[in-house]
Specification:
It holds the Pfam family Glyoxalase_3. The chain has 7 helices and 16 strands. The chain is of the alpha+beta class. The strands form 2 sheets. It has an 8-stranded mixed β-barrel.
Length: about 270
């Protein structure tokens, strides 16, 4: 069972706006440089557990619809675009094939850091289904790709990816077939019709009417929110700008207090 989030991609049309928003809520992005396609660049928010938030946008002069990564998401400024699991070998690709899913890749990719160091990796996608994660395998040392995070007394790392879907049963069945994830369990959470898949980094929500419904109309089913784990929500509030508290089953959570992150990027108490 694939359980560990390597990183998540949060996209928009302007990287400086994403970086400014992250700084305003107490997250510290590091500019990571331009991707090898020349059409996107990114900044990294590393977390103590080794996972990271990737802020990604088109490069200057590139139309978002021409971006090499997730052009529809970047053009629509919808934030969460994709999530990634790390793999050490081809086993994950084989299980996708065995599950009857199309495999796109592996594709060579790279990024030129501002210090001139070239970061290289392979990426593998499972067709064009944005509900599913993609996989990454480093060609260069992972430390080239992910800067070391500053120590944090409360913040730990990426905990949950919330996938918006019009058919929760069908999406749960997809993850059971592909990743052997267990059945979803309904809990009180940040969205209506919200469920977690115990022991996994995945939660599912059905949109109903409103913003999530419009999001699916615009970019399709896929990740709509990312949750970062914190050990002590009260202590986290002393270092991070967080909105009103929300119940997350028997735990506490809050969205980062910025228009770009509200309903898209949150902090959740670790169990």
């Amino acid at each position: 069972m694939d359980r560990t989030i390597d990183h998540v991609a949060f996209g928009g049309t302007e990287l400086y706006e994403l970086r400014a928003a992250a700084n305003e809520v107490g997250l510290t992005p590091t500019y990571g440089g331009e991707h090898g396609t020349g059409t996107t660049h990114m900044a990294v928010v590393p977390f103590p557990d080794g996972s990271y938030l990737e802020l990604i946008a088109p490069t200057l002069g590139t139309d978002a619809t021409d971006a090499g990564f997730w052009p529809d998401y970047l053009a629509a400024d919808v934030g969460p675009a994709a999530w990634c699991l790390e793999t050490d070998d081809a086993a994950s690709v084989k299980t996708a094939i065995d599950a009857g899913l199309p495999v796109d890749g592996p594709h060579e990719a790279s990024r030129a850091r501002p210090d001139g160091r070239l970061v290289e990796w392979d990426m593998c996608f499972e067709g064009s289904d944005q509900r599913l994660p993609f996989f990454i395998h480093d060609r260069t040392p992972r430390g080239y790709r992910v800067p070391e995070a500053a120590p944090n007394a409360s913040l730990r790392g990426l905990q949950t990816v919330v996938v918006a879907t019009r058919d929760r049963e069908a999406t749960a069945a997809l993850f059971a077939r592909r990743h052997r994830y267990p059945s979803p369990v309904d809990i009180n959470g940040p969205f209506p019709e919200f469920a977690t898949l115990p022991g996994t980094p995945l939660a599912l929500c059905e949109p109903g009417d409103g913003a999530l419904d419009a999001r699916i109309d615009e970019v399709g089913e896929g990740p709509c929110a990312f949750l970062v784990g914190v050990t002590d929500p009260d202590r986290a509030r002393t270092a991070l700008s967080l909105g009103p508290e929300i119940r997350y089953s028997d735990r506490r959570m809050a969205w980062f207090d910025h228009d770009l992150f509200d309903g898209r990027l949150g902090a959740v108490e670790l169990s």
